[in-house]
Specification:
alpha+beta
Length: 377
């Protein structure tokens, strides 16, 4: 069993050596590998039968984060394709299209209007929607591609791992063509009313920011507009599918300088009324905002601040300026996120290389490493 770990500052091999090796004095009689195996197996719950831990990637502790703040190459995302679909409607898939136009809402709107009647549509999305869109426009790309293909949600989780203690699981499989797919492991929607209300308020904010015409069919209001972006993080090329909430102006509009409209991300947050809430917003919310938008090149984030369940104000954040808003405050560093993701992806690519097998990466308590598991036949 080999454990992967974050690379230190000097030159290192692509698959780094373990940094968390126990001392000889504390090492159990089974040796180094037995100690690592025992530690990794603790990450599998009793309900995780059918999987075997084959490797682990060490998550840096807070005092180690400073070692990983160097710059890492990240290419500007370029759009390859677009598609749209309606949840629960497989026949609704369509290549191309543009997101709805953003309209600034007025403060005072209720964010729970319609909650009692709302039913969450079944999420039947798969990575095939992304690959189909790529094949339709670039049929020769995937057979020659050797990178990763994923929805943005998986990368959001990976980049946030050094700072957030949120458990996740991602399925991994190397295709016969040579590229690696990362598939979302879907979790059940919350059943308690409080959580469902919070989720609904975010959807309601999106609705009032992108009002539809009165002639539009009811289910068309639930259409998701997605793009496929090509990015390169460190040594890894990726094709990333991402839902786009809105666009700043009609697709054919141009400003005085000839610049076209920009994509817009829509978010909600509780109104900040204390220094403690300000710190929490910067430490957690801004980190999530930045990762999600930076990865696929969305330049504008519109955040609706709510007081209770009422929209209080809308604030605009420029994605590329968010890191400077928290610099020097000791909350998070974007380079740490990027370096961690680059090295974890190297470990995944090395350990999950057999196209006849299915793998899974898993992160959970005690939050000290990401486990890489192999599905038992």
């Amino acid at each position: 069993l080999v454990a992967c770990a974050m690379k230190p500052r000097d030159d290192r091999p692509k698959v780094p050596r373990n940094l968390s090796r126990p001392s000889k004095r504390s090492r159990p009689s089974g040796g180094r590998n037995a100690s690592i195996t025992d530690g990794l197996q603790k990450h599998l719950t009793q309900n995780d039968g059918g999987w075997k831990v084959i490797a682990g990637f060490k998550v840096p502790r807070r005092y180690e984060l400073g070692n990983y703040e160097r710059n890492v190459k990240f290419s500007k995302p370029s759009q390859l394709a677009a598609f749209s679909r309606i949840k629960g409607r497989p026949d609704s898939y369509s290549i191309g299209g543009n997101p709805p136009v953003y309209t600034e809402p007025k403060p005072g709107a209720s964010l729970v209007e319609g909650f009692a009647e709302y039913k969450e549509p079944v999420d039947d999305s798969t990575l095939d929607s992304v690959t189909d869109a790529v094949k339709a426009k670039y049929p020769k790309l995937l057979p020659e591609f050797k990178g990763f293909v994923s929805y943005r949600n998986n990368l959001n989780k990976i980049l946030a791992t050094p700072y957030l203690r949120n458990d996740y699981q991602i399925l991994v499989q190397r295709t016969q063509e040579g590229w690696t797919r990362l598939d979302i492991v879907k979790t059940p929607d919350p059943v308690d009313e409080r959580s469902r209300r919070f989720m609904y308020m975010g959807r309601r904010f999106e609705d009032i920011c992108t009002p539809s015409s009165s002639t539009e069919a009811a289910d068309e209001k639930n259409r998701e507009h997605c793009v496929v972006m090509r990015i390169k993080l460190g040594e890894h090329e990726m094709l990333v599918g991402a839902e786009i909430d809105a666009i700043s102006a009609p697709a054919d509009a141009k400003d005085a300088s000839g610049k076209g409209p920009e994509y817009v991300e829509l978010k909600t947050s509780a109104l900040i009324e204390s220094s403690r809430q300000q710190n929490s917003f910067e430490r957690y919310k801004l980190l999530k905002f930045w990762i999600q938008s930076f990865l696929v090149g969305v330049p504008i984030i519109k955040c609706g601040f709510r007081k209770g369940e009422i929209l209080h104000k809308i604030e605009t954040f420029k994605t590329l300026k968010i890191p400077s808003m928290v610099r020097g405050k000791g909350v998070w560093n974007g380079n740490v996120c990027l370096n961690f993701a680059n090295q974890l992806l190297s470990c995944i690519k090395h350990k999950c290389s057999d196209p006849t097998k299915v793998y899974k990466i898993s992160f959970g308590a005690p939050w000290d490493r990401v486990s890489i598991c192999e599905k038992l036949s």
